[in-house]
Write a structure and sequence with these properties.
The complex is a heterotrimer. By secondary structure, chain B is mainly alpha-helical. Helix content of chain B is 49%, strand content 0%. Chain C folds into 6 domains: 134 residues, 3-Layer(aba) Sandwich (Rossmann fold); 207 residues, FAD/NAD(P)-binding domain (3-Layer(bba) Sandwich); 65 residues, no CATH class; 165 residues, FAD/NAD(P)-binding domain (3-Layer(bba) Sandwich), CATH 3.50.50.60; 61 residues, 2-Layer Sandwich (Alpha-Beta Plaits), CATH 3.30.70; 130 residues, Rossmann fold, CATH 3.40.50. The chains are: A alpha/beta, B mainly alpha, C alpha/beta.
Chain lengths: 291, 170, 801
Amino acid sequence: MASYALFLGCTIPARQPQYEISARKALAKLGIELIDLENMTCCAPPPVKSIDLETGLAISAYNICLAEEADLDILTLCVGCFESLAMANTLLKENPQLRKRVNQILSNVGKEFKGTREVKHYLSVLLNDVGIEKIRQNLVKPLSKLKVAAFSGCHLLRPSELLRFDDPERPRIFDTLIEALGAKSIPYKNKLRCCGGLLRGYADDVALAITRDKIVNAYNAGADCISTLCPFCFLTLDLGQMLIKTTYKEEYNLPIIHYAELLSLSLGVEPKELALDFHKVKLDKVLEKIS
Amino acid sequence: MIFVEDKGEKSNSDFIKNVKEMLGGETITSCYQCGTCASSCPVAKTTERFNPRHLLRIALLGEGDEILSGDAIWLCSSCYNCQERCPQKVEIAEVIFALRNMAIRSGKIPQIYIDFANGLMNEGRVVPVSKFVEKKRPDYGLPPLKPAGVEPLRKILAATGFDKLISKKG
Amino acid sequence: MEEARIGVFLADSGGQLSKILDFESITEFLRGIHGVTRVQRASEFWRGDGLKKIIDAVKSGEINRVVVAEGIPKIGEIAIAKSISSAGLDLNFVEVLDLKGHCAWPHRDSPREATEKAKAMLLAAIEKVRLSQPIEKAVFPAVKSVLVIGGGVAGMQAAEDLADMGFQVYLIEKEPFLGGLAARAVRFFPTDDCAVCIQSPTSDLKTVTHTSRKCIYRSGISEIPNLQILTNSRVIKLEGEPGNFKVTIEKKPRYVNDKCVACGLCASVCPVEVPDEYNAKLARRKAIYMNMPIVYPPLYVIDGSVCKFHECAKCVAVCPTKAIDLNQKAETITLNVGSIIVATGFKEFDPSVIKEYHYGEYPDIITHLELARMIDSFGPTGGRIIRPSDKKEAKRIVFIQCVGSRDRRWNPYCSGICCMISLKHATLIKEAHPDADITICYIDIRTTGREHEYYYEKAREMGIKFVKGRPTEILHDPATNTLVVDVEDEILKRFLELEADLVVLAAAMVPNDGSEELAKILGIELDKDGFFKEYNSKLRPTETKMRGILICGGATFPKDVPTASLHAHSAAVKAAKFLNEGKIVKDLRVAYVNEDYCGDCECCPVTCPYGAISLVPSGNGHFVARVSPLKCEGCGICVGTCPVGAIELNHLNSKQISAQIKALLSVNETSKPKVLAIYCSECGGTALDSAGMTMSYPANVRTLKVPCTGVIRAQHIIEAFKAGAQGVMIVGCKPEGCHYEAGSQMAKKKVELTKALLAAYGIEPDRLEMFNLVYIEGDKFAEAARMMSERIEKLGQLVIA
């Protein structure tokens, strides 16, 4: 049984328990053990880096140190957390000067980054530790009628030089994992483009215009839902549709659903166990297609 | 270089030097204005308020005040598409972080970032956990949420001077 | 060897030097040195009476070693050398030094110390010639034949030049036909003439009229008697020495002999079809094929990798002249040549790795080579510009520049010719189809050659559009089967979505296949971009580190045809110069290995910039190093590398260095602390020369000349300190500009190592310093000398037990 230190980040425990619930249930069913470490903090995403990059790097490194001390690799759910931590991990492993600089800061809290562990997103754990075959074998309710617009979010793939997760121009891992559930991952315009989420709070109008583009493109391609990996993307696209309704007077009713939720559902977890009422756009149409 | 206005004390070439010395800003001078970043940018295609090539152009001309007090640097959505495709390997997204760092040091910080920083300093998370949601955890079969390492985090923030950056702004 | 009888000749430069130097004292000093049989003084010794005196003394047998302190040593040295040589004295027994520029003038403010230094310098020169050994001249054969590798524009031009000059030339080409990349380009810019037009030979060919240029197929290149063309051939082994190489060639079978009349019946019955590489895979060809238009040789060829041979043999049956021989075998040919010219050209970069451009995914995105094949009316589309997806005429064409060029992810350099190629293609298409809608997306338009800018003007006048902006992605609209180019027009600051029937990628030009392998076989280097490396592209173009092996054309860097042609002629001249005499006469001022001491550490072959050292079996399972006297340039870098001192230079051995060091530091009447400056005979020495002309520096800086600072070992520096130096300066060429390629970088490493060594022994590492200077930095040398003098005074007396 593979064990990982679960890194939850901020947004998931704050507002999206449904992501955490579905992830824990699905991974448990597939034999992945998740350990909750003490004293983890925010991963230091762009809002923190915007204030001070060095602080961001130090905070990411601090969290990696906790995992190093527990002798575990990190598993993240949120791709934003994946990027912050994986980028920091690679940068510090490969740049001795930077590592020295950050370790000097970490000495204030009695920690030292050693570069002994990896930071993984749960998709790679599913692909490599569990394997497509095992997922298929465990399917209870294959999602064969479902047309999914896959949206991994920017931070799973880019910057590819540091994240090294998948081909940034032709990613296949997410689509493969969706198709392992029996669903169809459909092509749609500007599939890899940002949802605009990080502009919310500063330039809501611009953010909303970008979000709307994404919804429209997926909708026009005939998607039953958009599958996400990032809680921020989720909020932007899900709550965003409410805002689109009031701002643009357009209604798309396109359910936004985390991959972990799709995974859980296809593995047989009952919808009522998954706190699906946290979704603003109701999932009735999707659930129909699943049962 | 000749500029229309005489900005006074600091020369324009100082600005570039300062950017290059910032963590993240080192690669800015490799830019040769090809424009790949601009057409890769989801924000630039949506609004005229932001264009990464244009932003770098102004920065490379040394117009520090315009950049740091302007609105553009806050409009990057950090999607990294520009950095991914740049043929000169300019770390554009990182450069923009560095410029934001410089703007904040010079006293300009949008309110939302003050909120993020406060969340971090008070609770160890940029998005504070809603008590309502936390209470519901056992109902969903979720283990109790481990508290964030606020103490070590505060020490790190003190060590880097992060707390001082924000404290001036409230 | 007989005992040394040394004559010392002091030139006074019209009495100027004796105003500063005490010549009486110097003469007395010299007379007291053992072995000095004559001391003479005159105004000058490099010509006239003065020179005659030296020659007479040599001829009479009175002296057998000569030390001349001359006023204009560089020119003087040559004149003296010529005369003494004809008087029968080995040149290694002659030492010329500059008492004016290296002593009297820069130290005119301290005549006493200058005189003291003059004595030391003369003593050093005397000790050097005392220990000199005679140096032979060796004669090496220079076979008057040349191998040219590559039958493209550059290769053909170089081959023709040399054949016209009377050399035996072998032109080999790995493809079955001559012409190279250029022949597929159809037309050349900026004149739009045919791509197969080359200079015609000047040899007396009675059936060909003597115009300056002709198409390859009728140029007569194949008829020059001393030019042998071998197609389907490549180099597999190189042995021998410069001037006398033995090259092994592998010639693949053509299976078609010269009875072929190029009727094409064979191709019409051949059942095997494969993608046609020559036509950029836009069409298919048979296993038996010929490229159109016909170049040379005008014979079909069978692609042995796909032919079914005797299982089929349909071609053999229909051939009217029985020209096909399926039993032909590969041949191995050995050639004896004096020089080799590499002209293997370049190829187009494959842009499918730039995934955002979707090359290979969407068929209507092509490269320049594919477009060129379409423009060629002999090509796969009969001259029509079509969309590969549906074969319809392409009306809206978008060019994208710098695809894979100027891109740090792929090829950081600018390929130089793609802007002109795009302009060429755009104007050719627009001329034939005035209603074509053509846009070129660029970062910069580079039209730097002669008449290139007018080409750009013409393009604009024809209505070709230019967008300054690098597209980020090429999209495909499946509904309309149209391509959409996503680009920001930077000047307008507007985002454009250019619809196109056809998108042409100006892909980078990269080193040709097989470059690495060929470089290894020939023992030459590739530069960091993978092109063949010129020894010094500014000052010694077309040369490589291997004597006698030259490179030219696109193989060294992408070029247009006029430049490739120029380069080829240059290589031909170099080869001719090298082989003209039919022999190479060389002074053996080279390194040699004492094989008894060689410990097989195998360091020296790596550090030799000329590949002159090889490892030979020593007979007991080990290897020893051996220096090729022909390839050796006598720099001494190997001497500096060898950890056990097994290598020596004929013209400056370690005893001579030690003797000079002792001598230079010995004369010390004024008891001032001394600095020893070891300088190279190239840039370092010139800095001293120019400093000596108008600058002043302290006379306690004593100077020792070596061929290259690379010869210096930590041992020499320690010796200097032991002999009384309080400080040591190493003065050499700039690191990127060492005249022996790698010497001053090695010296720098040596200095760092020695500093650590000194520190370990409690000696201040600051007593040792390296300076990299050139001729125009004489002032910097003077400053450095002053700085070191002050430094050692501050550091105080150094005592080594």
